Amino acid sequence: MRIGILTAGGDCPGINATIRGVCKTAINHYGMEVMGIHSGFQGLLTKDVELFTESSLSGLLNLGGTMLGTSREKPFKKNGVMSDVDKPALIEKNAKELGLDCIVCIGGNGTQKTAAKFAARGMNIVGVPKTIDNDIWGTDFSFGFDTAVSIATDAIDRLHSTASSHKRVMVIEVMGHKAGWIALYSGMAGGGDVILIPEIPYDIHNIGRTILNRLKKGKPYSIVVVAEGIQTDGKKRAAEYIAQEVEYETGIETRETVLGYIQRGGSPTPFDRNLSTRMGGHATELIANGQFGRMITLKGNEIDSMPLEEVAGKLKLVTEECDLVVQGRRMGICFG
Ligand code: F6P
Question: How many domains are there within the chain?
Answer without folding.
Answer: 2
